[in-house]
Each structure stands twice: as C-alpha cells, then as structure tokens.
C-alpha cells in the first residue's frame, strides 16, 4: 500500500508542556478519502487538528504527511507541505469582501493567482455572485464555502476541517459535507471533525472516536454506523454533545 496521506503515531500534545490534552493518539488518513474524528465536547478533536497543523506543541510522537515528518513544523510552513487548515471558528475575515478574502488566501500563488481564483469561483458559484460583498453578510453555509475556497487557494493535498457544519441548517450542512466529498474525487484527502455524527459517518470512509484525549474506537465508517455500541453511545438518539 502507498504511504497514507497523513499518519499520526503516539502523539501526546497540549497547550502547556506538562498538561497534555492528547495522550498517545494514533490516526491514519488515507489519500483521497474522508477520515472523520468524532467524540464528545472537550475530547481533544480540535486540539488534534491543531497539533497536526503546528498550532499546538507535540511533546512526543510523530506526524507524517505523504511520508515526510512534519511534527512541530511551523503553521506557516504547512501550505508548502500541501496542508490546509480550516478552523472551527473565525475562519474568514468578515469585515473584508469575498474578493479580498480570496486575494489574501492567494497571496502566495504568484503567477497562478488568476487561474486559481477563476477555478475557485467556478467551483463556488455562490461566491462568484457576491465577490464585492462583505464576507460577514454571507449565510452560514456560504461562509463555510468561503473558508473552504480560502483553504483550496494554496492547492492543498490534505485539508483539515474542524466542524464545518456547526451551526448550519441541515440542508446547508449537507451541502458543505457534499462539497467535501466532491473534493476527494479530485484526489484531495480530508480529515474532518464533525458533530453531525450520522451524516458524517454516511459520507466518510474511516472514522476515529476520541474521548478524554485518547483513541477509543476506530473503523470503517460504514461498520461504525452499524455497530450497536457506537449506535448506543453516539447515534441512538442520545446526545453526543454535552449540553446540546
Ligand atoms: N487554548 C487552549 N488553552 C488551554 N486549554 C485548551 C485550549 N483550547 C482547548 N483547551 C482544552 O483542551 C481540551 C480539549 O479541547 P478541544 O477544543 O480540543 O475539544 P473538542 O473535542 O474540539 O471539543 P468541541 O466538541 O467542544 O469542539 C479541553 O479540556 C479544553 O478546555
Ligand atoms: Mg472542537
């Protein structure tokens, strides 16, 4: 088998050196697939994504991307390694126009800038229609499209997406997740954190469940959807999110 796109081995990480949030976490994301991370609030899902993106220090373990060790690489080096990160919140500049958001994201695209912009706007027609509008005026779903377009501006091989459907209507959530699925058809690898568990499992290839900063269960998404234990804890009408 070829190298997986992303491989995380025994990663311990946290915001403070002697206060780990993640303990010996393992995860593999295959190229061109959607791998989803689910788990309760505070499980460490965002922390894991940030540790991969170089935003949270990794105290032990390794993060490899396409066979290259990227553990502890600075966040601003990630794009050069083909990785884009779409944060859970504040993932666009609301006071700037859509055009300005895209131009910022395209600032390192050099001569390819116009071609990439044209391709992104063809991919996201809703943005094309509102280029001069402030990003803050977009609907929730359109904001996620803009965040995704910004991420795609660096032509990544792997996109880390943290809860892109949070706060969206079921229909907008479906559209955003379908867009993610469509990207994998172009060979992009996606590591997705999701709270819409059933929806996420339906469109994912592989799924990891994290709780209290540790791996719990992982498997093919289709198998987990049919797993009675997973169904009982995470699907069967029970709340995954505390307070939801
Ligand atoms: N900037 C930070 N500094 C210190 N601790 C933090 C920071 N951000 C998160 N934490 C802590 O790390 C733990 C894991 O949080 P994290 O945000 O990774 O969880 P999550 O699984 O993404 O939860 P949610 O479903 O609510 O998004 C929590 O105990 C949280 O309080
Ligand atoms: Mg989170």
UniProtKB/TrEMBL annotation:
Q: A GO molecular function for this record?
A: branched-chain amino acid transmembrane transporter activity
Family per record: Belongs to the ABC transporter superfamily.
Q: Which GO terms describe its biological process?
A: L-amino acid transport
State the UniProt keywords alphabetically: Amino-acid transport, ATP-binding, Nucleotide-binding, Transport
Per UniProt, residues of the ABC transporter domain are: 6-237
> PROSITE patterns of this UniProt entry?
ABC_TRANSPORTER_2
Q: Which InterPro entries match?
A: AAA+_ATPase (IPR003593), ABC_transporter-like_ATP-bd (IPR003439), BCAA_Transport_ATP-bd_LivF (IPR052156), P-loop_NTPase (IPR027417)
Instruction: Give the matching Gene3D superfamilies.
Output: P-loop containing nucleotide triphosphate hydrolases
Q: What is this protein called?
A: Branched-chain amino acid transport system ATP-binding protein
Q: Please name one Pfam family that this protein belongs to.
A: ABC_tran
């Amino acid at each position: 088998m070829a190298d997986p796109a992303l491989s995380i081995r025994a990663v311990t990480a946290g915001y403070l050196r002697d206060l780990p949030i993640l303990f010996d976490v393992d995860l593999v994301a295959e190229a061109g697939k959607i791998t989803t991370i689910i788990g309760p609030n505070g499980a460490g899902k965002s922390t894991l994504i940030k540790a991969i993106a170089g935003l949270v220090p990794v105290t032990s373990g390794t993060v490899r991307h396409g066979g290259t060790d990227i553990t502890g690489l600075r966040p601003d080096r990630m794009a050069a390694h083909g990785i884009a990160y779409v944060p859970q919140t504040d993932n666009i500049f609301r006071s700037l126009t859509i055009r300005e958001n895209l131009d910022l994201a395209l600032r390192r695209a050099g001569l390819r800038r116009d071609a990439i912009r044209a391709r992104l706007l063809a991919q996201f027609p809703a943005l094309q229609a509102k280029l001069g509008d402030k990003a803050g005026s977009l609907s929730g779903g359109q904001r996620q499209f803009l965040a995704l377009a910004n991420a795609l501006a660096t032509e990544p091989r792997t996109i880390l997406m943290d809860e892109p459907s949070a706060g969206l209507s079921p229909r907008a959530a479906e559209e955003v997740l379908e867009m993610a699925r469509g990207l994998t058809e172009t060979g992009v690898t996606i590591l997705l954190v999701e709270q819409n568990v059933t929806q996420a499992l339906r469109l994912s290839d592989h799924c990891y469940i994290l709780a209290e900063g540790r791996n719990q269960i992982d498997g093919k998404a289709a198998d987990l959807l049919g797993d009675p234990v997973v169904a009982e804890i995470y699907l069967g009408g029970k709340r995954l999110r505390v307070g939801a």
